[in-house]
Amino acid sequence: MYIHERGDSSHFGIMEQPPKKKMVPVSTSGFQPDYDRKAELTAFDETKAGVKGLVDAGITEVPQIFILPSPENLNSDDQPSRSELILPTIDLAGINEDPERRKEVIEKVKDALESWGFFQMVNHGIPISMLEEMIKGVIRFHEQESEVKKQWYTRDMSGKSRVIYNSNFDLYVAPVTNWRDSLYCTMAPNPPQPHELPPSCRDILVEYSSQVMKLGDCVFELISEALGLNPNHLSDMGCTEGLAILSHYYPSCPQPDLTIGTPNHTDNDFITILLQDQIGGLQVFYQNQWTHVPPIPRALVLITNDKFVSSQHKVLANKVGPRVSVASFFSTGSIQTSKVFEPIKELLLKDNPAKYRATTVKEYVEYYNKKGLDGRSGLLHYQI
Hints:
Blueprint: E1 2-3, H1 37-47, H2 50-56, E2 89-91, H3 99-115, E3 120-122, H4 128-142, H5 146-149, E4 163-166, E5 181-188, H6 202-226, H7 233-236, E6 243-250, E7 262-265, E8 271-276, E9 282-286, E10 289-292, E11 313-315, E12 323-330, E13 340-341, E14 359-360, H8 361-371
């Protein structure tokens, strides 16, 4: 789901649009015949400066590693959008005081997750000032000197590092490099020590993750009840134990029609609570078409045997920037446990057998990271 953050986009450090410069194609496919992609990826990786480093260097054309391989995958603002569709918005006010109000909200949650796979939340309890400060904290981290950021730069996704800064976790396996840099922090159940967190966003990371954990508890209760289960069912399964905060920084792009911020994918956790600024660029696949959505939240539940939708979504590159988003992932992927997850038995019937085989979250996350964001859902690997 998404948490709605209101405010003027000028609060988030929008840069002036760079001058447009026409790119001279080197072949009908846009690729040089002697292009050595691996060498270019390595050279980019070794700078440890990310996409922000390229923008700071003053590039006016998108480097080859970022160019989408086929025209049909390109994204432009003149593509059709389903602006007439009304996104689900759920008001959480009064759900703990008024039983009838709670029933209404649970029904709305059920409808939203069965159709869209996500919804927007208002009156969620997290102060607007905290949302704004979280956005600012992400900007402070990514806009500090590269030499300072490099101390957190790593590609070790094994879980040993609880604070990870890099550009494209799947840099060497994905079909195209994405126009974004990221900061990943594992905040529960074993949070980093304060000195391990970047000073630029240390305090707000601790405060924000605490608030998101409370909101997550509430959302898991609502989802449990929407499934016809006890309010504590998903919590008792361990879905609320782990939390990771993934902050994306999308610099302004000189040629956004040639690349992508984040490609088509589904998340690899139980649910995601997303905070984003006012720039936009998020699209969700709904009713067989990509739909532009304003800054809002999405939900993903792995273990409902397809009763609830795991929504496909992507982020377009933009000439205006930076765009910032903060995804809070509820997952036990970083926890050393052999607990097995599978379709909830209470939801299975003779005419609705299990559609996915059992797995540990650790196994699922490792597979997801290994395959990268290649446009395929990680769930397909586990279908029976």
